[in-house]
Amino acid sequence: MGSLKSIVFAALALVPNATSAPSASSLGSRESTSLAVRQNYPWQWWTEGQGQFNCQQQGGGRYSCSWNGQSGGGMVAGTGWGAGRKTVRYQGQYNPKGPGYLSLYGWTRFPLIEYYIVESWDVLAPGEPWTLRGNFTSDGANYALYTAQRVNKPSIEGTRTFTQYFSVRSEAEKKVGSVSGTITTGNHFDAWARMGYGLGTFEQNMFMVTEAFANGNQLPSGTSTITVS
């Protein structure tokens, strides 16, 4: 699961008090980006390449998306909060086909880490090789911790080499269609640290995102309506 998103963050790092956003894998292919506070929640909306992508913030922590990506096309949309240790609850409808996922997403600095807590997906389709580091339980669900390395890729600090952490809910426990769950972020951070994978200083915001991307001949499509609190 390679990041689809990053040049946005790199640009925002140069703007005081800017709302943070995820990373983009390609400068030239970025088509549109919107970062704002809407309906009292940080909101990020990003697309690249070809396809039909439509996402809207609807108020009360709710957003909806529909997508039909073509080769090289992808999108990320989500509602956020200040990053750190907290309990995040989500519910709604998530109906994906092809590569992409529903996840909590963010960054740290010192060290530079891109992290995901992946709750649901159809096809994960990682862009870089993943290494399984261990398993743990949080909020009654079983997760696997994977790491990957991105070499000379865009990040919140410009083109850098950095590590990605992925908490991935077990295949047997993930939900598609009607989804809901609780994410106690500190449980994940502590489990990663126990395995030797600590985080750094949190970037301003993290987001509960719907992400979709093309991977080779696998193309994404689907719909989601997610409410977070």
TrEMBL record:
<dbReference type="InterPro" id="IPR018208">
    <property type="entry name" value="GH11_AS_1"/>
</dbReference>
<protein>
    <recommendedName>
        <fullName>Endo-1,4-beta-xylanase</fullName>
        <ecNumber>3.2.1.8</ecNumber>
    </recommendedName>
</protein>
<comment type="similarity">
    <text>Belongs to the glycosyl hydrolase 11 (cellulase G) family.</text>
</comment>
<feature type="active site" description="Nucleophile">
    <location>
        <position position="114"/>
    </location>
</feature>
<comment type="pathway">
    <text>Glycan degradation; xylan degradation.</text>
</comment>
<keyword id="KW-0326">Glycosidase</keyword>
<dbReference type="InterPro" id="IPR013319">
    <property type="entry name" value="GH11/12"/>
</dbReference>
<dbReference type="InterPro" id="IPR033123">
    <property type="entry name" value="GH11_dom"/>
</dbReference>
<keyword id="KW-0624">Polysaccharide degradation</keyword>
<dbReference type="GO" id="GO:0031176">
    <property type="term" value="F:endo-1,4-beta-xylanase activity"/>
</dbReference>
<dbReference type="Pfam" id="PF00457">
    <property type="entry name" value="Glyco_hydro_11"/>
</dbReference>
<dbReference type="GO" id="GO:0045493">
    <property type="term" value="P:xylan catabolic process"/>
</dbReference>
<feature type="domain" description="GH11">
    <location>
        <begin position="29"/>
        <end position="224"/>
    </location>
</feature>
<feature type="signal peptide">
    <location>
        <begin position="1"/>
        <end position="20"/>
    </location>
</feature>
<keyword id="KW-0858">Xylan degradation</keyword>
<keyword id="KW-0119">Carbohydrate metabolism</keyword>
<dbReference type="InterPro" id="IPR013320">
    <property type="entry name" value="ConA-like_dom_sf"/>
</dbReference>
<dbReference type="InterPro" id="IPR001137">
    <property type="entry name" value="Glyco_hydro_11"/>
</dbReference>
<feature type="active site" description="Proton donor">
    <location>
        <position position="211"/>
    </location>
</feature>
<keyword id="KW-0378">Hydrolase</keyword>
<keyword id="KW-0732">Signal</keyword>
